[in-house]
C-alpha cells in the first residue's frame, strides 16, 4: 500500500509543470510571443544614433492586453510588449534575419513596477529564456529612455491599422 502511494506521488510530481521561481519583480520570458499581434518591424542601420546598442532588425509584438493599450492609449496591467532584436544580414540583395541578439520585454504591472511607470523591463540574451541582461538595472538601462514617452504610457511604438 505504501509503495503504491509513493509511486502515485512520484508520478503526480513528474506530471506537474516545472515553473521557475522568480523574484517578486522579475519579468517573465514571454513564451510564444511570435504568435502575438505583430505591431511593426524596422531596421536600424549603421549611421543611426542607436546603432551601437540596437542595430539590426526589430520586430515588436503585443499580447491582447497590450493591443487594447495601443488602441486606448493606456496599457492595462498584464499588457506585454516584446522587442525582438535580430542581426541584419545582407544576402543576395535582401536584408534577412540573422542570429537573435536580445528579446526585450515590457510587462505592465502598476504595483510591482511603480518606480518605473508601472512597467517591468527585461532583456533575454540571444535565444536564452533565462539569461537576463537587464535585471536590477531596468531604470537606467530602459526606463530612463522610455520616460520621454510618458504621454504614451512610456511606449515608443504605435499600432498601425
Number of strands: 5
- Architecture (CATH level 2) name: 3-Layer(bba) Sandwich
Strand content: 25-35%
Q: Structural class, from secondary structure content? A: alpha+beta
Overall helicity: 10-25%
**Residue ranges: pLDDT <50 for 5 or more in a row?**
1-22
What does this structure look like?
With 161 residues, this protein is α+β, with helices and mostly antiparallel strands. It has one domain: Chalcone isomerase. Helices cover 22% and strands 30% of the residues. The protein has four helices and five strands; from the N terminus they run H-E-H-E-H-E-E-E-H. The chain has helices at 2-15, 51-54, 64-72, 138-146; strands at 37-44, 56-62, 80-91, 94-108, 119-125. The protein has a five-stranded antiparallel β-sheet. It starts with a helix and ends in a 15-residue tail after the last helix.
What descriptive keywords fit this protein?
five-stranded antiparallel sheet, 4 helices, 161 residues, Chalcone isomerase, disordered N terminus, alpha+beta
Write the topology of this structure.
Elements: H1 2-15, E1 37-44, H2 51-54, E2 56-62, H3 64-72, E3 80-91, E4 94-108, E5 119-125, H4 138-146
Antiparallel strand pairs: 1-2, 2-3, 3-4, 4-5
Amino acid at each position: 500500500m505504501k509503495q503504491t502511494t509513493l509511486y502515485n506521488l512520484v508520478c503526480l510530481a513528474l506530471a506537474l509543470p516545472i515553473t521557475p521561481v522568480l523574484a517578486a519583480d522579475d519579468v517573465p520570458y514571454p513564451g510564444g510571443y511570435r504568435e502575438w499581434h505583430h505591431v511593426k518591424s524596422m531596421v536600424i542601420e549603421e549611421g543611426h544614433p542607436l546603432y551601437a546598442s540596437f542595430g539590426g532588425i526589430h520586430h515588436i509584438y503585443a499580447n491582447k492586453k497590450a493591443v487594447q493599450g495601443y488602441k486606448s492609449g493606456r496599457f492595462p496591467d498584464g499588457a506585454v510588449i516584446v522587442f525582438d532584436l535580430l542581426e541584419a544580414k545582407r544576402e543576395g540583395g535582401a536584408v534577412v534575419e540573422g542570429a537573435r541578439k536580445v528579446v526585450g520585454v515590457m510587462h505592465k504591472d502598476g504595483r510591482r513596477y511603480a518606480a518605473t511607470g508601472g512597467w517591468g523591463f527585461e532583456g533575454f540574451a540571444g535565444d536564452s529564456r533565462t539569461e537576463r541582461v537587464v535585471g536590477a538595472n531596468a531604470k537606467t538601462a530602459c526606463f530612463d529612455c522610455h520616460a520621454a514617452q510618458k504621454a504614451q504610457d512610456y511606449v515608443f511604438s504605435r499600432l498601425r491599422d
